[in-house]
C-alpha cells in the first residue's frame, strides 16, 4: 500500500513555537456547568500568567443555570450580599453577588486585582469613573461611561481601567452576578461620589460555600478552603 506524504509538513523544522495554554481566547470551550467552569478556572489560575480575554470568554460562554448556583444565591432585604463559591487555591475568589431590587454598590477600587463580573440573572448597570486627581479633591465625581450588562454577559475591570459602581437598575426584579477576583482581597477603597474622598473598607461574605457566615467572621482561612475542597 502506498502512503501519501504531504509536502506541507516541514521535515527539518528546527524549532516549533509552543503556544502557551489558555492564551488564545478563540479556542475556549464552553463549560457545561458552573462546576466545569470552576475546574477550568483552577487550571488557568494555576499559572501565574493570566490571559484576561481568555477568562472573560470562558465566563461568558458558561450559560447561566439557576440549578448550578441557587445554593449560593442568598439575599438580604436591605443590601446586596457577597457569597463565596470557591477560594481558588488561594489564587482567586469566586463569588455570587445577590442584588435586590435597585440595590447598588458604592464607587470602589479593586486592590490591584483582576475583576471579572458575569451576569447570572437579571441585568446590571455599571458606571465607570476615573480615579480622582489631587486637584479634584472635594469635587463630585461623574461617570465617564455607563454600561448595561444583560444575562450571561461578562464585564472586566482593574485599577488600571479605573473605578466603578455597580447596581441592579430594576425596581421589580432581582439580579445575580458571578465575580472572580484574582488575587483575592479583603479590603478595597470606597469613594464618596460628592467629594471624591476615599475610605478603606473591609469586604465581607454573607455566606461561604452555601453556608451563612457567622457574625464577625470575614476572612477566608486556609482551613475553610481545605474543608470546601474536601466537600
Ligand atoms: Fe467592583
UniProtKB/TrEMBL annotation:
Keywords: Dioxygenase, Iron, Metal-binding, Oxidoreductase, Thioether bond. Its EC number is 1.13.11.20. Fe cation binds at residues 108, 110, 164. GO terms for biological process: L-cysteine catabolic process; taurine biosynthetic process. Its cofactor is Fe cation. Binds 1 Fe cation per subunit. There is a cross-link at residues 115-181 (3'-(S-cysteinyl)-tyrosine (Cys-Tyr)). It catalyses: L-cysteine + O2 = 3-sulfino-L-alanine + H(+). Pathway: Organosulfur biosynthesis; taurine biosynthesis; hypotaurine from L-cysteine: step 1/2. Transmembrane segments: none annotated. GO terms for molecular function: cysteine dioxygenase activity; ferrous iron binding. It holds the Pfam family CDO_I. Belongs to the cysteine dioxygenase family. This is Cysteine dioxygenase.
Amino acid at each position: 500500500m502506498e502512503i501519501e506524504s504531504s509536502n506541507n509538513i516541514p521535515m527539518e523544522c528546527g524549532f516549533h513555537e509552543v503556544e502557551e495554554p489558555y492564551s488564545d481566547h478563540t479556542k475556549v470551550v464552553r463549560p457545561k456547568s458552573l462546576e466545569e467552569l470552576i475546574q477550568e478556572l483552577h487550571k488557568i489560575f494555576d499559572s501565574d500568567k493570566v490571559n484576561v480575554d481568555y477568562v472573560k470568554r470562558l465566563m461568558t460562554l458558561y450559560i447561566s443555570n439557576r440549578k448550578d448556583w441557587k445554593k449560593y444565591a442568598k439575599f438580604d432585604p436591605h443590601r446586596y450580599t457577597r457569597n463565596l463559591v470557591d477560594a481558588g487555591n488561594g489564587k482567586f475568589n469566586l463569588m455570587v453577588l445577590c442584588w435586590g431590587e435597585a440595590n447598588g454598590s458604592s464607587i470602589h477600587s479593586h486592590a490591584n486585582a483582576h475583576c471579572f463580573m458575569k451576569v447570572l440573572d437579571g441585568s446590571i448597570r455599571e458606571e465607570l469613573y476615573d480615579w480622582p486627581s489631587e486637584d479634584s479633591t472635594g469635587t463630585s465625581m461623574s461617570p465617564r461611561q455607563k454600561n448595561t450588562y444583560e444575562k450571561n454577559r461578562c464585564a472586566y475591570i482593574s485599577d488600571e481601567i479605573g473605578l466603578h459602581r455597580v447596581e441592579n437598575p430594576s425596581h421589580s426584579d432581582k439580579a445575580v452576578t458571578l465575580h472572580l477576583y484574582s488575587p483575592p482581597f479583603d479590603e478595597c477603597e470606597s469613594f464618596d461620589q460628592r467629594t471624591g474622598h476615599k475610605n478603606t473598607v473591609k469586604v465581607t461574605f454573607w455566606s461561604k460555600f452555601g453556608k451563612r457566615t457567622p457574625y464577625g467572621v470575614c476572612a477566608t482561612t486556609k482551613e475553610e478552603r481545605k474543608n470546601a475542597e474536601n466537600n
